[in-house]
Request: fold
Amino acid sequence: MRDGHLTPAQLRSRAWVRLFPDVYACASLLVTHDLRAKAAARLLLPGSVVCGRSAATWWGVPVAETDDDVELVLPAACRAGATHGLRVRRGAVDPSEVRLLREVPVTSPVRTTLDLARTRPVAEAVALVDRFAAAGIVDLGAVRASAATATGRDCRTVREVPRLADGLAGSPQETRVRLLIGGSSLPPPVAQFTVRHRGRFVARVDFAWPAHRLALEYDGMWHAEPGQFAADRQRLNRLLAAGWRVLFVTAADLHRPDQLLDRIAAALT
Reply:
């Protein structure tokens, strides 16, 4: 509009969708978080870098929904005002921490992980880091090495979260289960354990105490998908036939952590 190519009346028509002030997209385009991040970084606030959840989503790990605030980092000297739909932080970004992905400046995988580690509460931060690392985009060893030198605000959290992450969880809820057990007096389980019987593959379970032949599985909503029930029962039968016991955890169990821990403890004894 500022270039005179379109009039205000044209922009108010159904042919255009407003993303941000003075930033519009053709209505035929699918509006995604990535599209909004691209518009914000390249058009609304040139010189900014996509960071945090928005950067993770741009790297291919969808931890930000379409309408979530786009997260950007700006040089401290920039005096851009607040804009609805953006979450802007100011600070220095080393050029080595920036990657140009599809013409959009995005924080590097390590820097993105460290930004995710600042999320509160800590359990949510660990779940985010687990999900990002599980995608194979970042090496947790490199993240921990970089986090060890973190200074300033939230530096303790930035160092703690990568240490708590393992990059193995298949879902955020699995991370929460692991953290719950890790914070208790129970012996730590083996995550993503492969069960074999007489040399043959039986199943891969979320958590296992092999010496007790006890498996712990998070039972998420995806287990209710068509055809999944029968597959789950076949898998359970294979585990039982191999001499294993299986405990199932649901989202409701996480709201009763003491009862869940007591149930696991009883199974282990």
Observations:
- The chain has ten helices and eleven strands.
- The two ends are 71 Å apart (CA to CA).
